[in-house]
Amino acid sequence: HEEESYIMEPIPLSLPILMDGATGTELQKRGMPQGACTEQWALEHPEALLELQRSYVEAGAGVLVTPTLGANRGALERFGLEGHLEEYNRRLTALTRQAAAGRALVAGDLGPTGQAIPPYGETPFEALVDLYAEQAGVLLSSGVDLFLVESVMAMAEARAAVLGIRKAGGEKPVLVTCYCDDEGRTPTGTDVLACAIVMQGMGVAAFGLNCVDPAVAEEQLTRLHLYTDMPLIAEPSAGLPETLSDGTPAYQDNAGEFAKRVPSWAAAGVRIFGGCCGTNPGHIRAMREALEQIDFSAFPPVAKDPDVIPCASEKEARFITPDVDVGETIECTPDLVEDILEAEEERPVGALRIAILEEDDLEIFAEEQYAIKDALCLWSDVPELMEGALRVYQGRAFYDGTAELEPEVLERLSRLYGLIVL
């Protein structure tokens, strides 16, 4: 795969980092109709975008995010604008770089495509990777300093975006943020802790939440901090919105109330701060002032048990120990789903071991891996088959050392896909 030589660059700013605030809700204040294609409207009204982004820089933002959340082929197709993908991404990045004027870094924004992999949709996983690679390639050649994968709704989106950025040749830092409900679940049911574990394994620079209520952000990020080692990101909305008589949302948290939460987010491991819907340059300025009062060196590190190893299925975080029992090996037959359910329900041992013995197994495994809830041990003595399985598995798997794969192969698979080697 094209990602073979991928090595992540460090974040090009010292922590903590202050990003910008909302774009969509602020452009609506400047005349953008609800339901409009944000990218198209911003290019038709560049002065509104530049004024907003320059205000964020003046407020203290060290990173400006390109208004390209919906500038992938899947999202643009809804407006019949897919033919403008390259133009939109290049022109919007150029405008953002103009607003930054060397005073802030520029993050290339990638958002949901509206596509889903089987069994939830009809888009093959590699096609989803290609959707992100197409946009990432344009953003990269347009001069972004880093990437922000934002508003993640499904594990496959996050994984495809990271792999797509790498396929495009991107070695820039990648930040990933999810949207979740009060229980920490994305709209597709994935625990954000599971997503964080997978993203950490794949080498993203930081992970967090966006477009959530500030209180939810604090609760969930506090939980993530206990099990992750990467910087966390807080990009909440300005409270829960109320719908006004004209249909527009009104957000409740003013800048002062929003900034009062910054110390709690910092204590929860947040080192990258920003705002989503309803936030404005006033919120960013208040956050900057709050950050200036925090001594980040005073926060004690979280004590973690080295014998507790975080894994994840598509939807659930799972924790194993080096001596985990993997039970009987399951082969990829037409009865794979039934075999997975039986292993998890009737003879629970803490983990499953699934063998990938031939090329046909990969197709079966890709179609049925959604049934896995427990930690997964993948087994194959063929490096190409092991990589194929890791690529399509929407979780973070481990390897128990019994297939005698070469150390350099395992190191590469660990770097690219987060494979845990016991």
- CA-based shape: globular
Given helix and strand content, the structural type is alpha/beta
Please outline the major beta sheet. 8 strands, parallel
Q: Helical element count?
A: 16
Task: Note poorly predicted spans.
Answer: none
Number of strands: 17
- The average pLDDT score comes to 93
Mind telling me the C-alpha Rg? 22 Å
Strand content: 15-25%
Strand order of the largest sheet: 1-10-7-6-5-4-3-2
Distance between the first and last residues' Cα: 25 Å
| Quaternary structure annotation | single chain
If you had to describe this structure to a student in words, what would you say it looks like?
Helix 3 (about 45-60) packs across helix 5 (about 85-100). The mean pLDDT is about 95. Strands 1-10-7-6-5-4-3-2 form an 8-stranded parallel beta sheet. The protein has a 3-stranded parallel beta sheet with strand order 13-14-15, with helices on one face. A two-stranded antiparallel sheet has the order 8-9. The protein has helices at about 25-30, 40-45, 45-60, 75, 85-100, 125-140, 155-165, 190-200, 215-225, 255-260, 260-265, 280-290, 335-345, 360-370, 385-390, 405-415; strands at about 15-20, 65, 105-110, 145-150, 175-180, 205-210, 230-235, 240-245, 250, 270-275, 310, 315-320, 330, 350-355, 375-380, 400, 420. The protein is an alpha/beta fold and about 425 residues long. It is globular, with a radius of gyration of 22 Å. The chain has 16 helices and 17 strands. The chain starts with 16 loop residues before the first strand and ends with a strand. About 50% of the residues are buried.
